[in-house]
Specification:
Blueprint (H helix, E strand, L loop, with lengths): L2 H26 L18 H12 L7 E2 L6 E2 L2 E2 L2 E2 L3 E2 L5 E2 L5 E2 L9 H6 L1 H4 L21 H14 L8 E5 L1 H13 L8 E5 L6 H8 L5 E6 L14 E6 L16 E5 L18 E5 H4 L8 E5 L2 H15 L4 H15 L4 H22 L5 E2 L6 E3 L4 E3 L5 E6 L7 H7 L2 E2 L1 E2 L9 E5 L4 H18 L7
Parallel strand pairs: 7-19, 9-10, 9-11, 11-12, 12-13
Antiparallel strand pairs: 1-4, 2-3, 5-6, 8-14, 13-14, 15-18, 16-17, 18-21, 20-21
This protein binds pyridoxal-5'-phosphate.
């Protein structure tokens, strides 16, 4: 071997050693791993069976008109298909032609396709020994990691100030609504605090306040009817402000200017332009309308005042000693995906869905003089950096003809089921139609509305 060849071999050996060292460091630090939190990968053992069960049930197609779940009823050894409205048969392939479009409930299943697209990042495997304790290791009931992700999402969406604010988790926002009434109402005043909301309002405010029947608070109805009253100066008032509003999608402000509970269930870019971060004393949000996971039952309150925070926390502690740790883990997985790429993939998907539904809906109603829907006003959205129309979760339909004073009945006669205006302390001339249900539900709703408007115009238009 001559000197030059030896020299070349030496260089090659050194390069090879260097490459091996670099590769080892790369692998040791978890390089190339998309999810950089878990760099050590043991072979799958006990989770394999759970993963196989989950994938087997997810592979049941139910003809694209239903879904089977791990906890669905079992028939002939298999989970049964749970069919979308108006579909039936063992595989959900049979559509009942005369079936009514049910647009009554605010069940937010419209985002299911997004979560199916993100199946790998949102699946959760919960071991039999996952967090069996009542508490986290720091003796709290709330996951700090989850709290951080919620704060991050608010900062990404630009819809709420969270810095220096307290946070409390609840079983859905429904539980936090009553916790907030408890926390804000006076325990010492001679008469109960008056709980109000401006009509049309979400009926649970009244139903809960009446149901929990306390000496400290009483539901007093429409805040608008107290606005001009002289009593309000000395009154102890707790006002629900729903913004955007359920049922009509309006961005609302307090009417009476006293103590307020801002219900921001729909204050996310898919439903409304976000003009700026809300900075109210007590704000309540819910996973149900943000990501569509109503079944997970998770909500949170953002609170400025420490005393109010401690009262809300006490309520949650006495009601259920904190929120399920399984739920908190699942919410964490979901919000990590919502936070990806500064929220763009998630909010764009959700907003595009809602925008498309509104475009199709307004096109149908534009042909009608008998029925109208709420006016939508463009606003600048700091999230999408554009001026855009709201795309509310509900259409607030008005029957314009004098004789149609029960709008729900008029629609029902044409196979459309909505929620009567009376439910929202408004006139029966109004009906709320839900736009956040499954694609099947929306398609049928649109078909029935098209038939309704075509009938008004004297011809039956085929879809
Ligand atoms: C305005 C408003 N607040 C709260 C809720 C309740 O949400 P959750 O599922 O978090 O209890 C709803 C549900 O429809 C709602 O419309």
């Amino acid at each position: 071997m001559n000197k030059l060849t030896k020299y070349c071999y030496g260089i090659c050996l050194l390069i090879s050693i260097a490459i091996n060292i670099l590769l080892s460091i790369y692998l040791f630090l978890g390089g190339g791993e998309k999810n950089d939190e878990i760099s050590y990968r043991p072979p799958l053992t006990w989770s394999k069976k759970a993963a196989m069960e989950a994938e087997a049930v997810a592979a049941i197609s139910c003809s694209g008109h239903g879904r089977a779940f791990l906890d669905s009823s079992i028939s002939n050894g298999h989970p049964v298909c749970e069919c979308n409205g108006c579909y039936g048969g063992t595989d959900c392939s049979e559509l009942s032609p005369e079936c009514a479009a049910d647009a009554n409930s605010g069940d937010p299943v419209y985002l299911e396709p997004f979560w199916i697209q993100n199946a790998a990042d949102t699946a959760v495997v919960i071991s039999g020994w996952h967090r069996m304790s009542y508490d986290y290791v720091d003796n709290t009931m709330m996951s700090i990691e989850l709290e951080n992700h919620i704060r991050q999402l608010h900062s990404v969406a630009g819809n709420a100030v969270t810095e220096g604010r307290y946070m409390v988790f609840g079983v859905g926002s429904s539980q936090l609504l009553s916790a907030a009434v408890y926390a804000l109402s006076s325990e010492t005043a001679s008469s109960p605090s008056k709980v109000l909301a401006s009509a049309p309002f979400y009926s649970i405010y009244k139903d809960q306040t009446v149901f929990f029947n306390s000496e400290n608070f009483q539901f007093e109805g429409d805040a608008n009817s107290w606005e001009s009253s002289d009593f309000t100066n000395n009154m102890d008032v707790v006002e629900f402000v729903t913004s955007p509003n359920n049922p009509d999608g309006e961005l609302k402000k307090s009417v009476l200017g006293g103590k307020t509970i801002y219900d921001h269930a729909y204050y996310w870019p898919e439903f409304t332009p976000i003009p700026g971060p809300s900075d109210e004393d007590l704000m309540i949000f819910t996973l149900s309308k943000l990501t569509g996971h109503a079944g997970t039952r998770f909500g949170w309150a953002i609170i400025k005042d420490k005393n109010v925070y401690e009262k809300v926390l006490k309520y949650i502690y006495l009601a259920d000693m904190g929120i399920s740790k399984d739920t908190q883990l699942r919410v964490l997985k979901i919000l990590k995906v919502a936070n990806q790429e500064d929220g763009k993939p998630f909010f764009e998907f959700a907003y595009n869905k809602m925008r498309e539904r509104w475009e199709r809906l307004t096109s149908v109603f534009s042909k009608s003089t008998r029925f109208s829907i709420q006016q939508r006003h463009p606003l600048h959205c700091n999230f999408f950096h554009e001026t855009r129309l709201p795309s509310p979760a509900y259409a607030w339909v008005k029957c314009e003809r004098e004789e149609d004073d029960d709008c729900g009945a008029v629609l029902k006669a044409r196979k459309i089921i909505g929620s009567s205006g009376i439910t929202f302390s408004a006139e029966a001339r109004y009906t709320r139609l839900s736009l956040i249900k499954s694609q099947d539900d929306f398609e049928l709703l649109l078909q029935r509305l098209t038939e309704l408007v075509s009938h008004e115009n004297g011809c039956i238009e085929k879809m």
